[in-house]
Amino acid sequence: MTTALPPPKKKDPVQRTRQPTLPPGNRSREAHGLTAMAAIGRFALQTCAACGQVQYPPRQVCGNCLADDLPWRDVAPGGSLLAETRLHHANDLFFRDRLPWRLGVVRMDAGPSVVVHLAEDCQQGMRVRLSLNLDRSGHAVMSARPETPGPEWEDDLQLRELTTDPKDRRVLIVNGKTDLGLALAQGFSAAGAREIFVGHAEPWKASPALDAAKAVGGVTLFPLDVTDTDSVQELAAVLGGKVEIMVNNSYHLRPGGAVDRLDMNISRQEMDIHYFGLLRLAGTFGPAMRARGADGAHGACAWVNVFSAYAQVNNPAFGTYSASQAAAWSLAQCLRAELMPGGIRVVNAFTGPLDDEWHQMVPPPKLTSDMVAGRIVDALQKGREDVAIGAVAEEIMQRLAENPKEIEREITL
Amino acid sequence: MTDGQGLKTAGGKAAGGMLSQLMGGILGGGIRVVDLTMTLQPDAPTIVMPPEFGQTWPFRMEEISRYDHRGPFCYWNNLSCGEHTGTHFDAPIHWVSGKDLPENATDTIPVEKFIAHACVVDCSAQAAADPDFLLRQDAVEDWEAEHGPIPPRSWLLMRTDWSQKHNPVDYMNMTGDGAHTPGPHETLIPWLIEERDVIGFGCEAVGTDAGQAQHFNVPFPCHYHMHGNNRFGLPALTNLDALPPQGAVLITPPLKIRQGSGSPARILALVETP
Amino acid sequence: MGYEGVAVCVPVTIPYSRYSLRSAHWFCGRALAALLQQAGIPKDQVDGFCISSFTLAPDTAVGLTQHLGISPRWLDHIPMGGASGAVALRRAARAVQTGDAEIVACIAGDTNHVDSFRKTIASFSQFANDAVYPYGSGGPNASFAFLTDHYMRQYGARREDFAKLCIAQRDNAMQFPHALMKRPLRLHDYLDARPIADPLCLFDCVMPCAGAEAFLVMTQDRARSLDLPFVTILSTIERHNAYPDDPIQIRGGWAMDVDGFYDHAGIGPEDMDFVEAYDDYPVICFMQIEDLGFCGKGEAPEFVRRHDLTTAGDFPFNTSGGQLSVGQAGAAGGSLGLVEAIRQLTDRCLGAAVTNARHGLISCFGMINYDRGLCSSAAILRREGG
């Protein structure tokens, strides 16, 4: 049985905040293949193309036939728990702060024996399900939970270090005036977020979505205009020490490219909102979040950027928009590196076209706000880092991986 | 007593003497200088256009340095904004009806036009009762009956106390069918130009036209007619309640922007104290 | 081919300390000085040199030659940690037999600075970096906790069985001057000790420390001419990455080689007068007792229950007290038992002596590269003329 996690207490003002430490992050080049799989939520291991042997730990030459073609392939995540321990002593500060810590050895159905982080409700000899997760250092680790998890298994403290579950955490949603902003507020409320701060700009412009968001449980509205440094600084001064999950839902799409529509104002607005907006948020909210990365079981844990898949390949129909998304995506990589010391995960969600007023002429499939919000909350609960949302985004990622020139020439999505 | 007309025509003859007299009034207390300008700040609302149209930039400032590692000796900022931000001057070139007129831009308007007499019509009670209040010709005629005729080349200023709405939501007062703010009736403007030869129209709302003016027979009639007749606009004024109905002199120069359609301006009024 | 004509002699221990400001170079250098002094030979007569150390980095045996001012014509560096003792022995013996070297100094030493153990385990191997250390960073404690947990469930071993081994070794250590553990261990001390990594508690775990072990290998003629008491080698084995298909380690490489091991020696386990086994955690002792033929697989718990493991008992085991009581001086832990065996078989015991000991078995184990120890080795030594 998993021990249910009690809701956070009010912070004792005379207690020094626990400083963020990270689990060991020294990995070989090969092991970063695991990180790539964990980031997108795949359970894949190196599998020898010649003899089919599944390899673990990662390596460059097959441990069976010595071939060197070891593609990452999805493998069965099941196995049996062979041995377990509960550590009461650790030399590393991260684990020392979190003892006792449960570990196990699992014999995978796919072959290898693996050392895993072990969920509280796993018992000796039990059938378990493995998953690849990112730990607080941003590197992949294996964890095991029962094949049929018990109630409240997601409250497991060790697993919670591997995910960024919104439950009992405080969330800031930037740009709550869109339908997606509303859907996110509803999604986080349903996921048990403790408080949901919804930022909104230009208050004189009415928004039915924002009006509806007001009624969602736990929601409080705050003025926040990401194009206004003062506004961002002022809100960071109020909320910086509270935000545990940042959701940058900035969105400003106008159709048009470079040659066929020279409009510096539109292009600059896109950059101001997507790129400079993220920069302003990063510089104001980032430091406090990074400092609170280990502030209890409910400390700051994630920074979500809602991006378009066009960040990764330009769609000329939305050419300058795509470029501003690419700029923001690049900055998010910087943010990821800078927030890493605090154990804060930067989650980039790449969406396909939304079913909104700016995609009136785009044929389906188009994403509903509920679908996007649902995938984002799910990604946080599962601890993902990169999320392609919807068939279009998934196809873009796949085509980019296969042949970036093909999609560059043929993008019609 | 010197009125606006007098200043304008008498300036060339005995500038030294009259200006000394003016300065004497300003320094000695006979003349009050009233600031009709709102503070430029990032959360000030800007004119709302449908999202598929081009948009004006709001006022933004980024600190360059503040006696720190970026500049140990000085504090200064970089600014950005649209020409029509905050309290500002509308030049005739701003509107399609004034696009081909001579001397229609901020850099070509003769500078003497930036100093003019002001007539202030108090509509504050009506605007408080009805945000869509429109100032009509008969009301101005009533005002003239009480305060005297509008001198030629004067500003007609519509006082509504709207600038005292400090919450941007109340100030913009937008609903699903657009903004609801007071302004001139569409028939008033041609009359002011043809019959009273005003230099322009000023008010306290975000634009010189009423909030619902896009629905009028001639959309945005104040912009259309004023600028089409090489007259000016002064929206987003404040402190109009500190001006007398007649007798104040406005100093309204916009920035000298090449082919500028307007600019934020520090609008001052000179008012004689009794 | 046997080890005819080879002598193993001059057992040296540089006394252990929990922490030291000295470097591994100091421990190795002082060990060489002690070897020369006890053998009564000048430095230039040592023409073979074999080193094991974790903390010598960035140096290897190569750097040490310049550091110590020696010019050997035969040089080896054995990166096998706890398995290095018997491996060094068999390589040095062959070098002496073939004439590649006349006198080989085998030295295993490590220092232990504050925090150096953490650094050693934090970058132990690529597999450990990638797939073990990020999991709780427990180091060998966690790895042996798994093996112990599994062994206990699989074969019915109880904590009391491990306790009996640890207590017997502590009894042996009470007479061994270099042991860092100076107090007797009682059953309730063992059972009530603070948990380290379930099921392991404090007295299941070696204490990392600084120190060195060393011995010389030369021809018997040379040993006689120098008037050095020596022992002879009957058999040796080594094996690496044995039984890779075992889902979890239940046996070491000894089990693969045990038959040939005794065939070569011409004697069997029943002929052993004492056993010096690798003992960083008691479970690995149980596996060695099984894999080296003293009982069947899974029968070590019962074997330990039926035997007295003290020096005076019917199965003298780790007569110096072993690493569990003396301390684990890094790679020197792989030679502790071998050096003690030379002492037992040349009547130079520092502690209690096994009565009439003629044959001693030394077993070594090391290098948890990922989930199991990869290196195993063993040797049977005989009293000269015995």
Q: Care to describe what's here?
A:
The complex is a heterotrimer of chains A (413), B (274) and C (386). Chain A is of the alpha/beta class and 413 residues long. Chain A is 32% helix and 21% strand. Chain A has helices spanning 32-40, 93-96, 157-162, 179-190, 208-214, 229-239, 264-291, 319-339, 369-382, 390-402, 404-410, and strands at 44-47, 54-55, 72-74, 78-87, 101-108, 113-118, 127-134, 140-146, 170-174, 195-200, 219-223, 245-248, 302-308, 345-351, 386-389. Chain A starts with 31 loop residues before the first helix and ends with a helix. Chain B has 274 residues and is α/β, with parallel strands linked by helices. Chain B has a single domain (30-56, 83-272), classed as Glucose Oxidase, domain 1, CATH 3.50.30.50. Helix content of chain B is 22%, strand content 24%. Chain B contains seven helices and 15 strands. In chain B, the strands form five sheets. In chain B, strands 1-15-13-5-7-11-12 form a seven-stranded mixed beta sheet. A two-stranded antiparallel ribbon of chain B has the order 2-3. In chain B, strand 2 and strand 3 (71-80) form a beta hairpin. The longest helix of chain B has 14 residues, at 15-28. With 386 residues, chain C is α/β, with parallel strands linked by helices. Chain C has two domains: 6-115 and 209-230, Peroxisomal Thiolase, Chain A, domain 1, CATH 3.40.47.10; 136-207 and 232-381, Thiolase/Chalcone synthase (Peroxisomal Thiolase, Chain A, domain 1). Chain C has 14 helices and eleven strands. In chain C, the strands form two sheets. Chain C has a nine-stranded mixed beta sheet with strand order 3-2-4-7-1-8-11-10-9, sandwiched between helices. In chain C, strand 2, helix 2 and strand 3 form a beta-alpha-beta unit. The relative contact order of chain C is 0.20. The model of chain C has no long low-confidence stretch (mean pLDDT 96). Chains in contact: A-B, A-C. Chain A binds chain C through residues 23-28, 30-31, 34, 56-58, 63, 82-92, 94-95, 101, 103-105, 107, 113-117, 124, 135, 137, 139, 141, and chain C through 117-118, 121-123, 126-127, 129-139, 141-142, 145-147, 149-150, 153, 194-200, 244, 247-248, 370-371.
Number of strands of chain C: 11
The CATH topology assignment of the largest domain in chain C is Peroxisomal Thiolase, Chain A, domain 1
Question: What is the overall shape of chain C?
Answer: globular
CATH topology of chain B, by name, is Glucose Oxidase, domain 1
The helix/strand order of chain C is: EHEHEHEHHHHHEEEHEHEHHHHEE
The CATH class assignment of chain B is: Alpha Beta
Return the CATH architecture of chain B.
3-Layer(bba) Sandwich
Question: Which parts of chain C are unreliable, with pLDDT below 50 for 5 consecutive residues or more?
Answer: none
Largest sheet of chain B: 7 strands, mixed
CATH superfamily name of the largest domain in chain C? Thiolase/Chalcone synthase
Secondary structural class of chain C: alpha/beta
Number of domains of chain B: 1
- The H-and-E topology of chain B, N to C, reads as HHEEEEEHEHEHEEEHEHEEEE
What's the tally of helices of chain C? 14
Radius of gyration of chain C: 19 Å
What's the N-to-C terminus distance of chain B? Answer: 11 Å
The CATH superfamily title of chain B: Putative cyclase
Could you report the average pLDDT of chain B, rounded to the nearest whole number? 93
**Low-pLDDT stretches of chain B:** 1-15
